[in-house]
C-alpha cells in the first residue's frame, strides 16, 4: 500500500490518496493520526497526519482510478482561522526562507568556524572575519531604473562610459567583511589570504586543492556553503549544508523576485524544467516521513523550452543539480501511482530549507 497525505492550508483541507489492491477503510481517526485497513483486514497502516484534522466530519474513501482511492478531510477549524497564510496583510512571498547559515544563524553561534568539507582546514573564522552583512537581493541591479529618475550610467563624455556602473553598481566588501547569501558567501580576495588559492576562475582550498567556489566578474571570491562545514568555536555544534539547498534557494529567489513558477535549470549539457506547483504545504509520504513547509515540484528532464518568455533560466552547478534530482526522484518513488505523474510531469516534494 502506498499513500500520500497532502495538507493544503489555504483551503483548509487535507487530502489522503491511497494506492492499494483493495478499497481502504478508516479503522479510526484522531486529530493527528489516521488508522487504515483494507476491506479484508489483511493490511493495516497507521498514518501520521501533517496537520490536525476535524474528526467530526464524515469520511469514506472514493475510487478515483485503477486501485486508487482518495479521502478529503477538513482541517481543524481553530487551526484554519489562525493560519498565517490566510493573513492578507502579510507578504507571503517575501517571507519565504532566505537560506541556511544566514547572518542571524551565524551571529547566534557567537564565534564560529567554517572549514573545508574535504580536509577540515579553516576557511573562515574569527581571524579573517570581523563583520557580517546580508547579500542584497540578486535582482537589486535591475531595480536601478526605479531608484533614479535618470540613467546614471549615461556618459557625459567618451571617457566616462560605464564609470558609474563600475563604481556604484558593484559590491565592494572590506577585507575581513563577509557577505552572506542564501547558498554562498562572498568576500574580497584579501579575506582568504593563505586559505584559498585562485586557479583561473576556480577557488581551491590551499591545503587539499579541492574546489570551493569561483571568482565573480567583480573579482570577489564566492564560496559555496555546501563545500564547507560549520561549527561553533567550542565544537559543540556542527552542521552541513545539503547541496540541493543551493537549487532550492535559487528557485525561491526566482519565485520572490520574478513571481516565476516555471524555471529551466541548466547544468552543462543537462536541462531540467521545474514547475513550482505549490509552496509552503506539508505532506506525509508512504514511509511515514512528514515533510513540512515544502514545495510541490513538477519536473521534466531534457526538455526543449527555449524561446518561452514565461520560463526563467537558471544556471546551476553539477553537484547541487545531482543532489536535487536525487531528492526529487527519491520522493517520487514513494508516491502512489496516480500521484507520481501529472501528464508528462514527474511529481515530487522538497522542503524549502533542507537541514
TrEMBL record:
Protein name per the record: HECT-type E3 ubiquitin transferase E3D
InterPro entries tied to this protein: UBQ-conj_enz_E2-bd_prot (IPR019193)
Lineage, broadest ranks: Eukaryota, Fungi, Dikarya, Ascomycota, Saccharomycotina
Any one GO molecular-function label of the UniProt entry: cyclin binding
One Gene Ontology biological process: proteasome-mediated ubiquitin-dependent protein catabolic process
GO CC terms of this entry: cytosol; nucleus; ubiquitin ligase complex
Entry-linked Pfam families: HECT_2
